């Protein structure tokens, strides 16, 4: 008697996967933001310790937002990539709700954050939604194009390149804090990896 292997289920973009995964991603983002805020208030500035910890939190959150959606949708083609992007969008909306209901009333952010938008707390929401969707979309493309199934190995190029780019930015004398340089470098790196993946597929 022969045993047939069950087909691998991939490219899941159903409503439940997107909404449940998005909710989990939104909660994870909120946890990362709270960890960042706690670090900024509790960890001493000495020898760049605070900046280093904040940069690690930013990198970990970026990896989660970029690569977990594709992992959950098992992205292998356009359908899974689109599902990953949708999951990223839902995650940003869920985080926005947590932010408005919990973080804002407790004045979690410094006043300068709102001052950027002229005192408005709504200026960053569309930017946040677009960024979260974009990064998850890029992560979906990288996942679908690559053959690596182990998440830790799949994210390794993004981690290494982000660290290198962020350090180059800092050492070049640009007046930007390490967590900001890390977040910017990660976004650029994931987008570049996605373009390279598409070029290899073409």
Question: What can you see in these coordinates?
Answer:
This protein is an all-alpha fold. The protein has one domain (23-201). The protein is 74% helix and 0% strand. It contains seven helices and no strands. It has helices at residues 15-42, 49-73, 78-103, 111-115, 125-145, 151-171, 178-201. Helix 1 (15-42) runs antiparallel to helix 2 and helix 2 packs antiparallel against helix 6. The longest helix has 28 residues, at 15-42. The model has no long low-confidence stretch (mean pLDDT 89).
Stretches where pLDDT falls below 50 for ≥5 residues?
none
Calculate the terminal CA-CA distance, rounded to whole Å: 42 Å
**Per DSSP, what share of the residues sits in E-state strands of 2 or more residues?**
under 5%
What characterizes the major β-sheet? none
Average per-residue pLDDT, rounded, comes to 89
What is the alpha-carbon Rg in Å?
Answer: 18 Å
By helix and strand content, what is the structural category?
Answer: mainly alpha
Tell the overall outline: globular
Number of strands: 0
Give the count of helical stretches: 7
Domain unit count: 1
* Portion in helices: over 70%
User: Would you list the SSEs in sequence order as H and E?
Assistant: HHHHHHH
Task: Give a brief description.
The chain is an all-alpha fold and 202 residues long. It is built from seven helices and no strands.
